[in-house]
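User: Please predict the structure of the protein below. I'd like the answer in structure-token form so I can feed it into my own downstream comparison script.

Assistant: Understood. Taking the following sequence of 153 residues as input:
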Amino acid sequence: MQRYEEPVKKLCCLNGIGVHTAMCALVEVGDFHRFEKASNFASYLGLVPGEDSSSDRQRRTGITKAGNAHLRRLLIESAQCLSRGRIGQKSKALKARQKEVDPQIAAYSDRANERLKRKFHRIALHSKHNIAKTAAARELACFMWGMMTGNLA
């Protein structure tokens, strides 16, 4: 249990990620470094759009759902949390969780949380609520990959 304590604290700095979701992500994925890019990790979860192409015709479909269904479901439920609160506002619980980690991780998670909320609200304004949740979940997965691999740029 000791080896999961630090990564769980890091992941819990992201809005919507709790201890259960963080532990499931760490156990289900194992080593995040096995994915070369964040988009490969999102593809592993089945959170990327599918495509039906033939000659000159290209048709985009819904997400592929070819991957880890349990973790995909958890991330989509975590993205639901982005609909609450104002952009840039942090809850007391999130502030308390961010005090326990490195300031660089807290700053990365703040940037991620703000970007995710903006993306969710921008898409929800023009499209369906579930499409916005799924798009935010894909980006949340990419931020998780960045945090766990040390790509905090």
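That's the full token string. The CA atoms of residues 24 and 30 lie 10 Å apart.
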